[in-house]
Structure formats: structure tokens, C-alpha cells
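Researcher: For the record, we're logging two predictions in this thread. I'll number them. Prediction 1 follows.
Model: Prediction 1, sequence and structure:
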Amino acid sequence: MSKVESLRGTTPVEIFESGIENHAAIHAVAFSVLWRDGSITNGWSTADTADLSLMIAMLQEKLRREVLTEAS
């Protein structure tokens, strides 16, 4: 399975610089905005639907594990 890493605390500039430096290794890109009120603005993606769904599922699992770790 693919590795999921948190981008929490990372600035957009750092993300884009990393993307430019590692462009040959990038398979797909997805973008959305989580607002402080909890709403999410849909952005854009170069991933097909299956890849995007997998990315979301993996991120949800990572976040779920982080919450369980913090709770214990």
C-alpha cells in the first residue's frame, strides 16, 4: 500500500517547491480546501476517480489512527 504523510503545518509554497523538485515521481495531484467552519471546497485533481477515492480512503484511515493514538 502507498505511504500517506501529513502535510499539516506545511505551507503551500513548500508543497509546490517539493512538487517541482520531485515532479517525475508524482503520479497524481488532488487539491481541496478545509475551511475553519468545517466546510470543504472541492478543488481539482489530475487523478482518475479510482485513484482519488483510494487517496481519500487512505487519508481517512491515517487520520482515524492518529485520533486513536492521541486518545490512548
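Researcher: Logged. Prediction 2.
Model: Prediction 2, sequence and structure:
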Amino acid sequence: MVNKKLTVFLVIAVLLSILISSNTAQARIYSYTLFDVPGATTGTVAFGINNAGTVVGMYGQSGYHGFIRTAGGSYTTIDVSGAPGTFIQGINANGRVVGSYGNWEVYTSGHGFIYDNGTYTFPFDVPSSFGTYPVGINRTGQIVGQYSQDGTMQGVRGFLWSDGGFTTLTAPGYISTEPRGINDAGWIVGSYGDANSINHGFIRTPGGVFSTFDVPGAKHTLISGINNHSWICGWYKNDDDIHHGFIYDGSTFSYINVAGYSHTQVWGINDDGKVAGAAFDDFKSNAHGFIATPKSSSCLGPVLQLLMSE
């Protein structure tokens, strides 16, 4: 007669060995929460998320406004006084946010700002720049972003603000450099454009070494965020111009595509692996913010129930 407990333990041991050996090779499955800022008429875009689950971004309603959304779903609108538009793009673990204000239609004319618990610091601009756009901030207060050195898109360069000073970041040999995320250790991610107008992702070490990172098979890659486990996120597209989100954990790609929408862009990631972004058919008129949360996918529960019922 077969000992049922022994059978159960043997099955568990086999399953655990399979799960452990294959865990790093399996793409994660995500659940999605879509949201819109109340009153938004021309779209909601989520750009950043911190470990508390607070999301920041922008929404359209007779102009463009920044927002902060708590994990509980309450919203605060952020507008720089007198500006035609306000956009929040980064938030750190302490709740400090960075963004820009100006005319969104004229990319090279904006100014940066910092917002911290009701207090604004603006303008936050690279000296002598034509437009400054802070987009990422880490726990220590280091800020990364982009600026235009000559008023053109070809003249866009990256910057790192640390210890009160700006450092220009330029991917070697390329036309434009656009940093978008920084983790607490100082690793920076973003994208750059080459001479053929192809966009590639990049990763920059704290020591200043650039390396290219592209989604396999993609024509254009944009990296938008990095967490403290060195997971990166972003989006990519091919000749069909369809946007797809992705997350890379150092060994495996997980792809983010919100059902019911043509395009998905992933913009921010926290240390729990949650990402924030936008799903849309037309970015300027019907974008919706979303949070994607990784789901556990253990098969032990159903197997145990089946075995123990025998």
C-alpha cells in the first residue's frame, strides 16, 4: 500500500525543484489597475511610482496638470502658478517629486521644478539651456533629466544634478541623450538617438560607463526606469509604430500590454516590481493611467488539494 504522506512529500519536493530551477527563466504575470484623474478630459498618463505605491503623472483638462495619486486612490493636482502646463515625471521614496512646466507642444522651452510637501523650487534649469526637463529622482536627491543646449531636438543632452551641481551626460558617439531614471546607487537609464534616427536604450554605471540595451528584435527601445534591484522597465516599438511595455529583471523579459488598447507605455518601476504607465489608442486624447502588479503563480496549492483529497 502506498503511503499517501510520502507521496505528497515526494511530489512537493519535485515541484519545488522545478519551480526553483525555472523561476528566473519565467516571465511574470501581471494584474492591471487602470485609472483616470477625476475631471480629466484629454487623458491621464502615469510617469512614476515609489515603494509606497504613490503614482505621479499628468492629465489633460483645459491644459495639462500634474497629479499625485496615493495608493489609496486620492488625488492632488499640482500646478506651477502662471504656467501653461505642468508635468510631474518622477517621485522618490521620500515623496519628493520632479517635473517641468511650460508649453508641452514646444518641447525645448520648458523649465524644471521640484515639489516637496507643498513647497516648490523653480526654475530648476541647467544654466544657459533652452529647455530643462527633470524626470527621475532617487532617495538621496540626485536628479536626472534632459535639456536642449541649442533649442533643437538634435541638441538634447542628459544631465545629472548631484551635490548642488549639474553634470552633462552624453552617450558616446550619438546624436541625443535622454536619461529617464536613477536608482539609489546612482545607476542611470534612458535612451539615445543615433544618426539613423533609431532610438536605443542605455544603462550608465555610477562610474560613468555607458552600455547599450535594446529589447531583442525591437527597432526602437526606450528605458524609462530602474529600481534598487536593478530591474529596468520601458517600452519599445517596431515599424508598425505600436508601443509595447517591458520589464527586464536581469535574466528574463516580461512584456506589458494592457488589453483593449493599441499602445502600452511603461514609465516607472518600484522595488516591489510594480510599474506605472499609460494605455491608449491616441496618446493626446484617450490615454489612461495604469499600475501593473506582478502576480504569484505557484501551482502547489491546487496539487496539494488534489492529493490530500485522495
